[in-house]
Write a structure and sequence with these properties.
alpha/beta, 5 strands
C-alpha cells in the first residue's frame, strides 16, 4: 500500500478468495486502527474474486462509512466489473475506471 493526500492506496493482484480473506481483513483492520479510513483500491490486476472476498470489501466499506471514511475501487476488468454490478456492490463501494477518477471521488468526499 501507499499513502497520498491522506488516502491509502491498496493494490490487489490475482485471486481474492477464501484463503486470501484473512490477510485482506487484517490489512483493512490495520489501516482502520492507524486512522487510515479513506481507501482507494487498485484492482487493475485482480483476476478473480469470490463471494467471501466481496463480503470482506463490503463489510469494510460499511465500517469505514460509519466512522466518516470511504472506500473506492478502480481498474476492474470487464468480467469482475459486471459481477460487482450484478451483486449491487456499487451501491456501497463506488467503482471507477481510473486512479484519477477514484482519487477525485475521495478528495471530494461526496
Amino acid at each position: 500500500y501507499e499513502s497520498k493526500y491522506n488516502i491509502t492506496i491498496f493494490k490487489v493482484h490475482g485471486r481474492l478468495d477464501l484463503p486470501s480473506c484473512p490477510e485482506l481483513e487484517e490489512s483493512f483492520r490495520a489501516f482502520r486502527d492507524q486512522g487510515k479510513i479513506m481507501l482507494l483500491g487498485d484492482c487493475s490486476n485482480l483476476t478473480y474474486i469470490n463471494s467471501a472476498a466481496m463480503r470482506v470489501l463490503l463489510s469494510t466499506a460499511r465500517e469505514l462509512y460509519e466512522i466518516g471514511g470511504k472506500m473506492v475501487i478502480f481498474g476492474l476488468n470487464d468480467r469482475i466489473n459486471k459481477l460487482f454490478e450484478i451483486t449491487g456492490i456499487p451501491n456501497v463501494i463506488p467503482l471507477t475506471d481510473t486512479f484519477e477518477e477514484g482519487l477525485g471521488l475521495l478528495l471530494n468526499k461526496t
